[in-house]
Amino acid sequence: MIIVTRKGVTPDELDHIRERIESLGLRTHVSEGEERTIVGCVGDESRLHGVPLLSIPGVEAVHEVLKPYKLASREFAAEPSRIALGGVELGGSEIVTIAGPCSVENREMMAQTAAHVAARGARGLRGGAFKPRSSPYSFQGLGEEGLQILADVRAESGLPVVTEVMDTRQVELVASYADVLQVGARNMQNFSLLTEVGRLRRPVLLKRGMAATVKDLLLATEYVMSQGNPNVILCERGIRTFGTATRNTFDLAAIPVLKRETHLPVVADPSHAGGRRHLVAPPSYAAIPAGADGLLVEVHPDPETAASDGEQSLDFAEFDHLMRTLRPFAEAAGRSLGALAEV
Ligand code: PEP
Ligand code: MN
Hints:
This protein is α/β, with parallel strands linked by helices. The chain has helices at 11-23, 107-119, 144-157, 171-175, 191-198, 214-226, 254-261, 270-274, 281-287, 316-332, and strands at 2-5, 27-32, 37-42, 59-63, 83-85, 88-90, 94-100, 124-126, 161-164, 180-183, 204-207, 232-236, 266-268, 294-298, 336-337. An 8-stranded parallel β-barrel has the order 7-8-9-10-11-12-13-14, surrounded by 6 helices.
């Protein structure tokens, strides 16, 4: 931690700043410049967390040297983390596609979707059984029946399933069916939920909140990891901005920022970013050279009848087109894409 003092700081103020830091168990190192005096704080910086240093007379600015997130940071693990998903690894050489509808609607549409996307190279099946809807009057998901459908379809298709858990009270239930627990954008800072999924070892797909900075996302990750669960997959799904042309604004550059800051795998969700079917492919293409390890894409057998997010769900032909046209981007980035049946 570096403390920059106010211009004209008095010797008494400077002594007081040092005493305050030293009383917290750190050493101080003062460097007097022509304009400003700087106090370096040496020792366990965590002791300074939550201390209102800016309120000490004579302090103008405080800069953190170490990252506030530890377990998620690159400083903690030099090598990229790989998280197993069925027979592949997120964070490995393959770009992993997880595809499926926004919501689990019935067994037939799930079985159809799983069979289709698996044949086109998808490695995971998505589908919400518990849905976080903006309106309480919208379809809320099938609940446990939806989880059972996911488990049955996994048994037939071999695709591991990714599904959302919205509440601490559902963690045990959802974990008894799901391969990956999704924590959605609206719950990114539900600290009780993060703590609860952190107690398991099941991978967690943590979506960036609509108004969350990259730092907020990484601190949310830290909640999960500090409970002992190292298996966090981060997801950029667009944030709210003043733009109204797209549902959210896809923050492409957040992907290389995350890849630099953390060793964890990062996936892009182009569906919730654009909000429209024709807006799904471009961010998918861009995300791969930007460093994404995978994609989370909404696919529905008949988007116009979808119970949720039909506007942004690809139909099967569109998904095939996406998978075909993604391949050169993966190859250009030195990555492979799931084995593709002839389409
Ligand atoms: C979803 O994946 O269907 C979903 C609700 O996503 P988000 O939390 O990103 O809005
Ligand atoms: Mn959705």
